[in-house]
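ugh ok fine here u go
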Amino acid sequence: MLRTLNTLLAIRTSIMANMLIYYIQKLPLIGKLVRNSFYANLGFKKAVSIIALVITQLWGLMLRFAYLGILIYLPVTELVVGLSEEDRLQQFVHIFAIISFVVAAVSSATVLEPKREKYIAVKLMRLSGTRYMQASLAYRYVTFLLYLLPAMLLFGSLAGASIIEAVMLTIMVTLWRILAEYAHLKLFEKTGIVLIKHTALVWIVILIGYAAAYLPLLLGKVVPTGTFLLSLPVCIVIVAGGLFAAFQLARYSGYSGVVDAATKRDDPLLDLGRMVTDAQKKSVKSKDSDYTVDLNQQGKLETKQGYAYLNALFFFRHRSLISSPVNKRLVIVGAFGVIGVITMLLFRDQLQNMKWNVGMVFPFLVLIMYYMSVGENICKAMFYNCDLSLMRYSFYRGSAFGHFLIRLKKVMSLNLSIAAAFGVSLTAITAAAGGEWLNRELLMLWICVISLSVFFTVHHLFMYYIFQPYSTELNVKNPLYYVVNMGISAASGACIFLRVPAVSFTIIIVTLTLIYLAAAPVLVRRYGPRTFRVK
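structure:
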């Protein structure tokens, strides 16, 4: 098994090393120093492989810290004020148990996962399917335990768990996931069903599971999940079941058929690039009904000229692509408003005891408005259906500033409609909570929501014109695009942790929006003709 494990790690580090070289080549200045011949330089590849291996291990560790810290510990400590130490631990264990024991057990199964690495190792390199799966499963769950343990010791202790309880939770969830692997395997063996490929069922479990995890916390109810999970009988059952499953997986003789089922050549999951590309192109194709002629709209188009006419024609002929993401967000915002109002009316006393107020929403506004913005969707649609052909002409690239301003107005109007709907929903929820709701905080919230919708409109179009990240297959190839977006994501997370006062937060958001709104057109005018091109 050790030789197979060594081969498995060699495949993974080689893939990671090639990816690092590829993306370093895309960086300005440094990228020119890295030539294609480096792929065949064994000494250089070995050095990069070591770096890749270290990055992989650190990444796995960081993900567990982020998972326990952001998804579990942070909501328990920040969403509800005044929880006792015992209640805080119960809420922590409840959320962890639902997500890690229930949701993950249904949505994840290494043994049946279609994976390019599995295809390369078993089909191309002719490794034994049995030895590959034994090594893969052993590595998966040993690292799962080692990555999770430090994070659990830290956040579990902060939530009020003892060291023994934190260690037991880590061991139990690892053994439970091994038991779930065995259950997936036996289900496939008996029925031929690969559960993780039933996307609709998996997402239903995910949505219901996350609702069950967080609703008790939001409603102020303490579910004794921790007392149940850490009780001696339950610990014995899970540990015994996990060890039995590990023994059965180690001696299972039918891995060849399982690997064959998970490595079908025509399975799109084996080629994530092709799967993503097909999905991306499908998502930006317009419907045939979009090309039907509306006489009233045709009359409005005839009054426009130049790029104003071009963009008006684009938005008209691809209206389903434009309206679909907007309508989906409006439905989500409307549902959020209705559910919020009903919750406030039914649980007003409990929420007042928890000292709920609209100010609690401010730290999450950047993250919410980032995902509510439709700028990225529309940029993809514009690239695939309009700009991909026109970017090849110098006159179109030279006029980048002109059509940037036209599109900025259009996309901003769409994002502002979503922001207005979100503001109305929050206003209705605040009014339903009772007490004085027409206050300064609500006014600042409206200002922040509108400012953030403008900010992200400018941001997505600016990134599109300056970095133009899309290739002809709609893959994102520009590493700087990733870096800047990671910076925005980091800032969103920082807002949740830093808890800036509402007044200061509003001033910062408005100031940054005005700066971005002023600087983006200037930079697009200067650099757009060079950067707005096909790659």
